[in-house]
Amino acid sequence: MEHRRYVVLDVETTGNSPKKGEKIIQFAAVVYENGEITDRFMSYVNPLQPIPAFIESLTGINDEMVEDAPVFSEISERVYRMLDGAFFVAHNVHFDLSFVQAELQQAGYPRFIGGLMDTVELSRMVFPSFESYKLSELCRELDIQHDRPHQADSDAEVTARIFEIILQKLKTLPVTTLKSLRKLSDVFISDLHEILDDLIEEGEDSPYQEGSQEVELYGTLAFSDVFTKAYTKESLQKSEIPDFPELLHCMQTELSSYEERPQQQILMTGIYEALSNCEHMVAEAPAGSGKSLGLLVPAMKYALENGTRIVYSTHTNTLQNQLIDRDVKLACRILGRPVSAAILKGESHYLCPHKFELSLMETDDNYDSNLAKAQILIWLLQTQTGDADELNLPSGGKHLWMRIHHDNLSSHPKNPYRERSFYHLARKKAEHSTVIIVNHALLLNDAAAERKQLPEFEELLIDEAHHLERIAGDQWGFRLEYVTMHSWLQRIGHLYSRDLLASVADWFEQESEIGYDYCLEMDVLLKEFADELNDFFTNLHAYVLKKKNSSGNRISFSIAEDTDQNPYWLSIEELADRIRFYMHDLLSIMKKQQQLLKSASLPLKTQAKMNEYFSFAERFKYASEAISHLFSNGSNDAAFWIEAEAKGAKNAAILCSRPVDLSDQLANALFEKKRSIILVSGTLSVNGSFKHAIRQMGLEDFYPKQLMLPSSFNYRKQAKLLVPSDIPGIRDVSQENYTNAVASAISAFAPGVNGKILVLFTSYDMLKNTYSHLKSVEEMTGYTILGQGVGAGSKVKLIKSFRQADKGILLGTNSFWEGIDFPGEELKAIIMVRLPFDPPDQPVVSAKARKLESEGKNAFYDYSLPEAIIKYKQGFGRLIRTRDDKGLLIVLDRRIVSSRYGKYFLSAIPDLEVHYKPMAELSHLAADWLN
């Protein structure tokens, strides 16, 4: 490996494609051999064409800088000789290679035919847990200084440093891992096989030996020492804990950033009393009240004093990690003793090593799948949890994970890795912990399931409790999509594939003639079923597009709308019946095959294939039940709808349902089963009452203790509410005119705000149209304008770009109304385009409305208005996050001051000063007040 020469290159160019005549404007190379840099070369290159403005902005290279530079042909001999006999190394190697090849050929030199190394690919493999593999992000993660991004010499230098770190990392891998990587390497972009062959040959020098404390070798896999090292097994015994005055004193002395907050002290006392009195409790703790510690300290004090455990449920995995990494540790310092805590997630989060080992034995030429396998091989040497949330898998790798995660079959007695189960390890840690941190989905899944995943517990904290009812609906409803079912059939395959049915048939052909006949029958049925399934979802897709006119991509159509006696719909119901009959027949054959295997002794690899094959029986059963449920929509108890992607494939449809009223299910599954449940959120009350939340979550019969904390912020000084009196009503003008008015309002307020603005929409169509309009407004050219779902960026990337902008406007829909923080100067104003009422034709909303009205209630005042007020409070909560924040809430919906119900929105945020004036006056007011 040391004897090879690597030329690490980077080029800056006038565009993305040499085929379109675009040219190199800067070339840089770093030669790396014998473990050190031996040569460097950099030159600007005259492209003999103007440099586009966006390239100049990106790279800082302008026409004057290249005017006296050589054309590429003048440096081509040096470049050719440098590359001769070397490996071509670059970050996204095909981009740089395509330009260098084109320039060399034009200069009369032969094409480069040597080895390639792509540091994007290699970084993904070697650093499988990094969030991003952009050059700047890799430098940040690896603590490499990168002073001039998008300058070829700087980029080449840091790429060489990254490549050196990658080579060093590969040298430390155990031979077992190297051999597995070698088997995968033929499909990689990088010519890694030569390096791996050398490292395998030098394997005697590997620092990893059998019995090493750092690694455990088992079977064909190498693990970190997670299964061999001891972990704390805390017995749940009673111990004395100081009273609150002393704990508050500890908070002041132990936490350097501690601010005395009366709200936090009230919350701590209230929670401790509710737990001690075996009461359920509902509490609202607005931003700034120190909610996490306010929950954890009294709960952990109670648990230690009573020898019990606490389950803490939150909304997202990010919050789970924050609790375990930061808040639990702070609580332990305050309590003056260590308290064991563990995160527990659902089975599908954890790797099954046996399934993974079997996947490595398969013949697989899929690039994403092989890259994911390589990532997992290296990750196994690092992970202490086996949790997929640590991995940054390629999109195709997620399909692999669906096959190799832990499930109930992973606990089979014959599984050779049964004692090396990450899921069982997580459960053991949870069983011996005082605090178990879960998310709402696992909590609700466990509450409804016969096979429990959580250890026994009696006390439960539910943070972000306003999400509980919605997530319960997702957990206890159905969702069936073509893509998922098609992937099932692909995995089962057919008799002449390399998939499951072929493996099952191979065994039966040798051992059981009747079993093989069943496989033949299965093969025919599966082919017919695949055609029927395609027809079914294609017809669903066509039906929705015919019924719903929308410019958006994702369209929802309620099955209850007008399906009765509709001939087209009746034909879909017939297709649904046929689908169910096929699944009944498939299940029947699988059951017969299982009977034949009852007394069979199978080789381990065959047993694993059989287990996976028969696991599809449960999936077909679920799908059959879902279709039966969805097409028997004769009651008000559930919402039934179809989602279709207008711009997707012709069968891109999803069947969905969820219970309309979850109060009884939540009451039966949770509240009557536990001694004390504490529900806390920053937004649970409506008009100073918890009545809506208590009714929605099934708490009415339990008479929960109620605690509503005032905000710790001074909204009269920190914020103002501006409502333009001259904005048109959405029903008074066309959609196009209203969108133009919204864009004009944003343009009018932006100069006065002179900073960052978050614009919240309730309609994606309106967001998209507003984004297009803003992009065309000349006055907005100095602003970074970002739109959710408009470009290719994820939510995380949008937020990062917004934070980096000097003056930015970020347009977002549902997921931007909560859960994101922009403290201080990161956000100066929020514009709410409309009051956040859910669309009345949204299937769950319309189903809830029908049910409430059938009970003689007012659907608007009993459901739509409370939900909108809660969302309004969540949106406002993005603006003021600390006592030093200052910002504007601008509502482009006159109903907040003109309608009968507007007063409920105004009173939701007490002491907020309201200004209802023409836009021109408000824009001046905004500028004066902020600046």
Automatic annotation (TrEMBL):
Pfam families for this protein: DEAD, Helicase_C_2, RNase_T
Keywords, alphabetical: ATP-binding, Exonuclease, Helicase, Hydrolase, Nuclease, Nucleotide-binding
Catalysed transformations (reactions): ATP + H2O = ADP + phosphate + H(+)
Cofactor entry: [4Fe-4S] cluster
Residues the record lists as binding ATP: A285, P286, A287, G288, S289, G290, K291, S292
One annotated GO molecular function: DNA helicase activity
Domain of life (superkingdom): Bacteria
Function according to Swiss-Prot or TrEMBL: 3'-5' exonuclease.
Protein name: 3'-5' exonuclease DinG
Organism field: Metabacillus sediminis
